[in-house]
C-alpha cells in the first residue's frame, strides 16, 4: 500500500487525547486505531503484534541475517493534539502545488499561502494533503505511523536483509504521557527513532531541559478601609514576584537556544494567589540558574513579608537528551549517512519543546527524532507532502540497510 493511502486511512480515526482524563489511555477512542494497527501489522507479517494494557502497540520483525548488528526501534504516536478537533477529518490532495493560495474551505473563507507559511515555498511541484479548515489533519503523528508500516511492508514483501526491527505506537504523546508506561526492556532495542517531526532532512537530538514551578502566595485580607499597615495583597506580591524575573526570558522574546520562564497561570484574590510557570532551557547550567532565580526571589520576598508568604515548588519534568546522545553519536551518524545516501542534506535543530524520545533516552533507550514531511501541526493549517512522506519511507529503509554495514 502507498504511504499516503495508509495515512488517509489512519486520519479517519479520531484519536484526540485529553489531559483532563485520568484513564489510560486518556481517551478510549485511541484504542480503536491501536486495534486496527495491530490487525494491519499481523497481516503484514510483523511478529508479536499486540496492544498492551496501557494502549501501547508493539510488534517486531526478527532479523533475517546471520550478522551481529544493532536492534533498531521505530516509534510514532497515535493521538492528536487537544488544540483542535481531529474528528471527521476531511482531507483533500492538492496535486502538483503551484505556489498559489490554497483554499481549504470556500464557505468559511479559510485559505493558506506562502505569505504566512514559509514552508510552502519549498513545496512547489509536490502533492500536498490538506484539511478542510475545520479540523487538524493528524500528520502529527499518523504520518509517522504510515511511514514506519510502509517501510515494514517493503522489507517483508521484498524479503530485504535486516537486523531486528522493533516497532511501537504510543497513545497520549500530546498530553505528555506517551512514555509513562513504555516498556523499554520488552521493546528490546539498542536505540530507536521517534518519527514525529517536520522536515525529513532533520535529525533532532536536542530538546529543552524542563521544569514546572508552582508558587502559592499567602496574603492577608482585611477591610480595605482599615488596611493600613496590615493588608498583604497576594496578587500584588504575585506581580512583584513576576517583575523580579529577567524580563527578556519570556517566550515571546526568545528563539533558538534562548530559554524562558513562561507564566501559564495566575489566579487568586487578596488573601491567596497561585502562579504556575514552566521553565525551559537547552543549556543545563542556564537552566539551573533560572531555577535559582525563582528560589532567590522567593527567599527575598519571604524576608520582606512574613515568613512563608511564598511557598515555591519546582519540579523537573524532562531533560535535554543531548548529553546522553553525545556520548555515542552512532545513533545520529547512522541517520546522517543514510540521508546522504539518498540525496538528502542532513540538518539538526534544537527542539523548543520536549519529545517522547527525550524521556525514553533517559529511560535507557537513546531516541533522536526524525521528520515525517508534515507541517503546521496542531491546527487547521496542518498539511503533509506526499513526496516527503515517500522520502521518509526511503530514509527508514536506508537506515535499516546501513545498520547492517
Ligand atoms: Zn507529534
TrEMBL record:
Per the UniProt record, which EC number(s) apply here? 3.4.11.4
Q: Where does Zn(2+) 2 bind?
A: 140, 174, 378
Encoded by which gene? pepT
Describe the reaction catalysed, as an equation: Release of the N-terminal residue from a tripeptide
BP GO terms, sorted: peptide metabolic process; proteolysis
Q: Which Gene3D superfamilies match?
A: 3.30.70.360, Zn peptidases (3.40.630.10)
Name its co-factor(s): Zn(2+)
Binding positions (Zn(2+) 1): 77, 140, 196
Where is the Peptidase M20 dimerisation domain positioned along the sequence?
205-306
Which domain of life does the UniProt lineage start with? Answer: Bacteria
Under Gene Ontology molecular function, one entry of this record is: metallopeptidase activity
Question: Which key words are in the record?
Answer: Aminopeptidase, Hydrolase, Metal-binding, Metalloprotease, Protease, Zinc
What Pfam family is a match, any one?
A: Peptidase_M20
Q: Where is the active site?
A: 79, 173 (proton acceptor)
Record note on cofactor: Binds 2 Zn(2+) ions per subunit.
What is the name listed in the Swiss-Prot or TrEMBL entry for this protein? Peptidase T
Please name the top-level EC class of this enzyme. hydrolase
Q: Which family does it belong to?
A: Belongs to the peptidase M20B family.
Write out the GO cellular component annotations: cytosol
